Structure formats: C-alpha cells, structure tokens
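Record format v2
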Amino acid sequence: MPQLSKRISTLNGDGSDGWGVFYKARALKAEGRDILELTIGEHDIGTDQAILDEMHRAASAGHTGYAMVPGVDALRDRIASRVSNRTGVATTRDNVLVTPGGQAALFSAHMAVLAPGETGLFIDPYYATYPGTIRAASGIPHAIATRAEDAFLPSFDQIDGAARDTNARSLLVNTPNNPTGTLYGAETLDGIARAAAANDLWVISDEVYDTQVWEGAHVSPRALPGMADRTMVVGSMSKSHAMTGSRIGWIVAPEEAVSRLIDLATATTYGVPGYIQDGALFALEQGDAVEAHVAEPFRRRRALVLDRLARQSVVTAIPSRGAMYLMLDIRKTGLDGETFAYRLLDAHRIAVMPGESFGAAAAGHVRVALTVADDRLSHAIDTLCGFAADLSEARVASGTMA
Ligand code: PLP
C-alpha cells in the first residue's frame, strides 16, 4: 500500500485516545455482562416519533434527491430566526450553513480559518474530538489548561498569553461545557472577547448544549459587542432534540464566511439529506417545550446526583450549571481518573469516563453522563462514592496521604 498522508496518520496525536475504559465496557457488554454505562452523551430516549413520522412523510413525498448544499431555505430561515431571538444578534439565512451534525461544523469552521500549520487554540478539559478536528484541518492544536480550583474557567491572561506564544488564528470554546458542565459567565466571556480582539482571533463557539442550562443563562460569545464579525457558532440538534443519529447541525457565521463554507460543503459533504432537514424543521417548529422536555431528565438527575454526593465528603462535583454530565473530583482516593475508572469497572461493572480522556487538566476526575434511569444512576453514584471512600480510608491507614 502506498504511504498514507502524515495528516491522517497523526490525527490522534500520540495514538492514545483515552477511550480505553469505554471500549472495555462495550466489550464486557458484548460478552453479555450487565454493565452500568455512564460514559457517552447519548440520551436514554430515542428521537420523538412525530419527528420520525415527518422524516418518513418527507422521504415518501420524494424529498430523497440532492438537497440544496447550504441547506433548504426554510430550515436556514428557521435557524436564523431561532438564533436572532435567542441572542438578539440580527441573523439571516445567509449567515447559516446546515451541516451533517455539530462535528462536521467544527471541522468546517477550522478549515475556514486555519491555513496549514497555523495554531488553533482550545480549552482543556475539552470534548475528545477537538485536537483531531484541528489536525484534520491541517492546523496545530494548542490546549489552554484550566484548573479545577477555578471551576475550569479560562481567563483573559491565559488566552491572551497562549495566543501570543503561538501566533494563533482561532480559539475554540464550549459553553455549556462538555465534560465539566461549566457555563461561561460575564467575566469569562468578556475575557474571551478581549483576547480575541487583541489577537485578531476567530472564535469558534461550540454551543451544542445550549438547551441544557440548569442555573443562570447561556450567553453566546457572538452576542458580545464586536464579536459577530469574528465568531462562528456551532449548533446541533443531537443533544437538544435527541437526534444524534440524524447528523444535523449548523454553523452561524458572517455572510462572506458562509459563502466560502458553502464551497467547502460542495467539495465534501454535498449537503444534508432533504428528509432529515424536513424532520429538523418540523422539530424546531414545535418550539421550546420539546427541547425542555428532552433536557428535563438531565436536570432532574443532576439534582439527584448532587443530593447523593451531599451525603459524603470523599467525592465532590465541579460546580456545574449545564450539559448532561457531572465531573467528579476523586483525588482523595489517591488515584488518577483512569486507574479509578478501570478499578470501578472491574469491581462494580460501572463505566465512567476518566477525566484524562478530556485532557490533562481533568486528571484526578471522572465524568459521569446522566444518561441512565434515575434509580440506576442513584445506585451507581452511591456505589462509586462507597468505592472511593474505601480507597481513601485505605490510603489514610497506609499513611500515603499527602
Ligand atoms: N461538541 C460537543 C461539546 C459535543 O459533546 C458533541 C457530541 O457529543 C459534539 C460537539 C458533536 O455533536 P454532533 O456532531 O452529534 O452534533
């Protein structure tokens, strides 16, 4: 076989993607073992039947040919009015490109702003695909490490310093955040906007969890003064409407950027299936109540987990205000997140994601996805806390406590 490109051969950096616990859990499950999986961000409900019926109707009515590459007009209009209403920033169809999911939007946005070899910044902890996405666009990923003690919020100085050091072209941010559940407030957003202006950065704002906000309000960086011209917003219906498998999302960006992004889509995806777009339009037309309904179990389960955690003092949660996850600090056990997660899986058949899967900044933590029924989740958290308490006691007894 002729040699593959360096770009594709090095997409995963050092080759370890941090998903070993997840793969092991799946392998055990395939052997028929009962594994309680709190790993990936997939709802425990499917797409609403009415949305599926609309896709079926649209496909049967003949919407199975090539759809318009930028997205069908009605859907682009609907996304534009949704964004205008939620952010107060005037947005039209010409600011919108429909994409096959948020992931394709993340890739396209980086393709649009990075020349080969230019640096794209992102915040650590991060959604696992970020470095690979930047590499796929021939960029150099550069992580800005945040600290658990700062609730994993980045500061102006950190972003500005990293941008200067690397001569970066872009900054990828994600609020509400996966994996930490943090929601960027006024100070953080102001720091992002000032650092972007000072270093002439594009901000790629991943807002796929914008309907999962439990405390406070989601503010899009695009809504800050002067930011609409340098921000690309990534949206998706995966999380808001439990449509992960339908692969439907969007980019909202300045008009000229969208024109170039349409060129890229023509050369890559050639658009999104028309019947999926019709289903998405129907779903958005149902209004906010549908999104609130999809988000509700995660709101309830977050409260439930916090209540269980309040009964003990070994495991603590990073203060979370959004998204379908909680990041738990297990450092009192003396273990790193990965060792803890493997041992928990072996001892109790409960699978959680090691914090390290999301970057070095989340070492000593594990992420739990709030994606199983309430009673199973309570049981899992109580078991996890009991397991951590035993490890912590053994550590104190053996005198290895720092
Ligand atoms: N961004 C974040 C932060 C995510 O957690 C995910 C999926 O889990 C995505 C983007 C990609 O979502 P999708 O491609 O399904 O829209």
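Residues 41, 101-103, 127, 174, 178, 206, 208, 236, 238, 244, 249 surround pyridoxal-5'-phosphate (CB under 6 Å).
The domain at 64-287 is CATH 3.40.640.10 (Aspartate Aminotransferase; domain 2).
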